[in-house]
Amino acid sequence: MIIQILLLSGLVLFSILAILLKDLLKAALSLAVASLFLGIIFFRLGASYAGVFEISVVAGLITVLFALTVALTRKDSEVQEARLTRLVFPLFFVIFLIIDGLVMRSLLQQVPALPAGPETGTFGDVLWKARTFDLVAQLGVILAGVLAVLALFRKKEEDKDE
Amino acid sequence: MSNLWFLYLFFSALLIFTGIYCLLTMRNLIKLFIAVEVISKGVSLVIIATGAVKNSILLAQSLAITYIVVEVSLVATALALIINIYKKNKSLDVRSLSKLKG
Predict the structure, then answer these.
(1) What are the tens digits of pLDDT across the range B32-58?
(2) b vs e for B74-90, b when ≥16 Cβ sit within 10 Å of the residue's Cβ?
(3) What is the predicted ipTM?
(4) CATH code at B33?
(5) Domain A1-75 classified CATH 3.60.140.10?
(6) Which site in A39, A64, B49, B67 is 20 to 30 Å from B12, CA atoms measured?
(7) pLDDT band at A159, cuts 50/70/90?
């Protein structure tokens, strides 16, 4: 329980750092560390496949994409944020923390425990047989993403002729 | 185990709050997508934690993996869009997008 709370606190802490740090590269790295914490939490909950995906894809690939974007837009990319944004955040965060704690505490006493039933089969059975439609949709999403990126980076016709 | 579920809900609500705060207050486009990522972390934490509590971790994992794939596709497209916006406007300020003609 204590380890879980520490991991969850680390996840929230690095997510906050990712948002508050001015340097975008450091922010992207903080996000990667937060993903690492989330992956470890997934492993501890017994979701090893999701943990592997979280660490390899989100902590790895998405961080690389963010770093690449930061590198490509570094020059003159400084954006003047409102001064109060970072100063007021701790105040709002503490207020939300208290409200969140109170709401969860009241829910704990009122909401009945979720009905739980044992699951049969393996992860492969569930993914390939029960969620086949999801896999087809994933293929569609990946294809759409690739086509969108290709469309966004295409060159003008005149450039091709030159 | 139900107590543990509320603990996960508590922390994921914090993540979602942090992301929404950033979305509402920040102006840098890359920061806005970092906020979207933070919100998605909160959501995937809820999916897996609920699956673990309900003893349906296999289904939750398959949903989380689908979610991660969608997230990657979204981020790749959005970052490509951000680079194009930067090329056009020479700025990552979200307010510069309100000066569109037409």
Answers:
(1) 989 999 999 999 999 999 888 888 888
(2) bbbbbbbebbebbeeee
(3) 0.90
(4) 1.10.287.3510
(5) no
(6) A64
(7) low
